[in-house]
Design goal:
By secondary structure, the protein is mostly beta strands. Among the domains are: 25-134, Peroxisomal Thiolase, Chain A, domain 1 (3-Layer(aba) Sandwich); 298-524, Neuraminidase (6 Propeller), CATH 2.120.10. Helix content is 12%, strand content 33%. The chain contains nine helices and 34 strands. The strands form nine sheets. Strands 29, 30, 31, 32 and 33 form a five-stranded antiparallel β-sheet that branches. A four-stranded antiparallel β-sheet has the order 6-5-4-34, with no helix packed on it. The longest helix is centred in the first third of the chain and has 16 residues, at 25-40. The chain is elongated. The model has no long low-confidence stretch (mean pLDDT 93). Bound molecules: fe (ii) ion.
Length: 603
């Protein structure tokens, strides 16, 4: 089979309206023939065969025979075999296919291919009728006025629900020093329904935000500031004198969006569609207001329960609780720890909740002096505590593993006698050097996963023998992994995680981890484009775990804009299959969630 080379090409200005210029499709063909031959450095006599791709030509222009048009406008092409290919949107591609087949077969050596269409030359009501000729007339979209939006909406109906993302947006300058996690929580909502996408954002109207709005300045200390810097003596958070910005996480429970804060605080409820303020979670008056609740509450799709924890610097240092599907606190127990710890996330299986005691925590003697410096203690083990979901304080069993810190767990499940937990092992929980961005941005070494060496890891605990096993599931530095929540707490296969811009807390790509085979599929955004943690949206009617879409929001620093982009979870490497531009570029942020339409109030 002979090889095929493109000798030259020409593209006319797609934005031009030839009809408004008083031109016809023949003028477009003449321009394309002349431009293409000039680009290739060929004469019309060199051409042996002609293929013209065109959709709906006779409907828009009345010109059905388009194969002959090149010879009509360029007489030296007369006598060449020529054909028009009607294949709707694929007409040009099919014309190329026919030309390459002729060359590969050895019939011709030089073939001219054109793709021409004139479609903006008829009244607006006629154009959709003509375009509708690509559908199966009499069978498809018979009642549709605009065939293609209608047909695309049919395809889009399997993406049906709401993507919510929390972001940190500082409204006032920091008192001393800003940290990326200090900003006020703003929820971004992108909903997909009937082929339409709608976007909205709203600040979470926390007590701290409202007070600072009245005062016109920051009143509480940020993460990179000493609590003594706070203007106000009160405040929130496990370390105190911080602002509860509800800016870390967002989930949907009992039909309502719930925003939370990683240092423990109130849980703020928002309408998941309008983002209207619905007040704080009270759980019938039983919300633990003294300690608040940490970010990374977990929702079990199978039971509708919300599992949560909180932590503090005074004993008991940890609590675990359960809120039922009816939004009632049904379980809340203290968990014994050797001292104050910094748990950030938890996991669950069908029958157990998994809490943690990792050897990176605030130094107790420094806490006594009002200083909150997290230190890694490599001589101490990592401990995972497994407690029945409604178990008491004494029912928890602790298992010891290699020392590390885990910011996020991706999933957990039961397999035989074992409880299996997946998350991101940190090879370097307390980086000492400044990182690639220099001393001015030293704080980013605690946020950049390439510096912390975060890798997907699996911990196994045998509930009968007490034996433990652990292993890396990947050599690739990723974090912020999400799953198809229908598989939460159950055996599963896929985690969709983010890669980071070296040295920064910015996500520059996605990796689909197959936890069974170790296979990875990745996608890298173009330089300067960063995404958010993805929401995994199961395809309506789908049953396979990765028969789903991945939804994320980008911040494009090159073009100063943001987009909502959608991937097919089964083909991450292909890149986005749909995108919608947001009105403004949005801030960097942390966590997100996907909620199927049927699971949110007011859908
Ligand atoms: Fe987190």
């Amino acid at each position: 089979m002979g090889s095929v080379r493109i000798a030259g090409s020409y593209q006319s200005d797609f934005a031009r309206n030839y009809a408004r210029e008083g031109l016809e499709i023949s003028d477009m063909v003449a321009e394309a023939v002349e431009g293409t031959l000039a680009s290739a450095g060929l004469e019309p006599e060199d051409v042996e065969s002609i293929h013209v791709g065109n959709a709906f030509g006779q409907l828009f222009t009345g010109q059905g025979q388009l194969g002959a048009m090149p010879a009509t406008v360029e007489p030296r092409l007369w006598g060449k075999p020529a054909a028009r290919h009607e294949a709707a949107c694929a007409s040009g591609s099919v014309a190329v296919l026919a030309a390459t087949a002729e060359i590969e077969a050895g019939r011709y050596d030089c073939v001219l291919v054109l793709a021409v269409e004139q479609e903006r030359n008829v009244p607006g009501a006629d154009a959709p009728k003509h375009l509708g000729a690509a559908a199966w007339i009499g069978h498809e979209g018979q009642d549709a006025k605009f065939m293609w939006p209608y047909m695309f909406s049919q395809l889009a109906d399997d993406l049906y629900g709401v993507y919510l993302r929390n972001t940190e947006n500082p409204l006032h300058p920091a008192i001393v020093r800003y940290h990326p996690f200090d900003g006020d929580g703003m929820i971004h909502k992108v909903s997909f329904r009937d082929g339409k996408v709608s976007y909205r954002n709203r600040f979470v109207r926390t007590d701290g935000l409202l007070t600072e709005q009245e005062t016109g300045r920051s009143l509480w200390a940020g993460l990179a500031e000493n609590p003594e810097a706070a203007i106000r003596a009160d405040g929130w958070g496990a370390r105190g004198r911080m602002k509860d910005a509800a800016s870390t996480d967002v989930i949907v429970h009992a039909g309502v969006a719930v925003a939370s804060f990683y240092q423990c605080g109130d849980l703020y409820r928002l309408d998941p569609l309008t983002l209207d303020d619905l007040g704080k979670c009270s759980w019938g008056g039983s919300f633990p207001s003294d300690l608040g609740v940490s970010a990374h509450t977990k929702v079990d799709d199978h039971t509708g329960e919300l599992l949560f924890f909180n932590y503090s610097t005074t004993a008991p240092y940890l609590h675990y609780g359960v809120v039922d599907a009816g939004n009632h606190l049904v379980h809340y127990v203290p968990i014994d720890l050797p001292g104050p710890r910094l748990p950030h996330d938890m996991a669950f299986t069908e029958h157990y909740a998994i809490l943690n005691d990792m050897p990176l925590f605030w130094e107790p003697d420094l806490i006594a002096r009002g200083l909150y410096a997290a230190r890694f203690h490599p001589q101490l083990p990592s401990r995972l505590g497994v407690i029945p979901r409604r178990g008491g304080t004494g029912d928890i069993r602790w298992f010891e593993f290699e020392p590390t810190y885990v910011l996020h767990w991706t999933n957990a499940f039961q397999e035989g006698d074992e409880v299996v937990v997946d998350g991101f092992f940190q090879g370097c929980p307390e980086p000492k050097n400044a990182g690639p961005n220099g001393p001015a941005d030293r704080m980013f070494r605690f946020l950049a996963q390439d510096i912390m060496q975060t890798r997907l890891h699996r911990w196994r605990m045998n509930m009968v023998t007490g034996a433990v096993r652990e292993q890396d599931l990947s050599d690739t530095c990723t974090e912020f992994g999400t799953i198809n929540s229908g598989f939460g707490g159950r055996p599963y296969r896929y985690t969709y995680a983010a890669t980071n811009e070296p040295g920064w807390f910015l996500f520059n790509g996605l990796v689909k981890h197959n936890t069974l085979t170790g296979r990875e599929e990745s996608y890298q955004f173009e330089p300067g484009v960063f995404c958010s943690e993805v929401g995994v949206a199961p395809r309506v009617g789908g049953t396979e775990e990765d028969d789903a879409y991945l939804v994320t929001l980008t911040a494009d620093m090159n073009r100063d804009l943001s987009e909502c982009v959608v991937f097919r979870a089964s083909d991450v490497g292909r890149g986005p299959i749909a995108r919608a531009q947001l009105p403004e570029r949005i801030a960097s942020g942390t966590h997100s969630c996907w909620a199927p339409g049927d699971s949110v109030n007011g859908w």
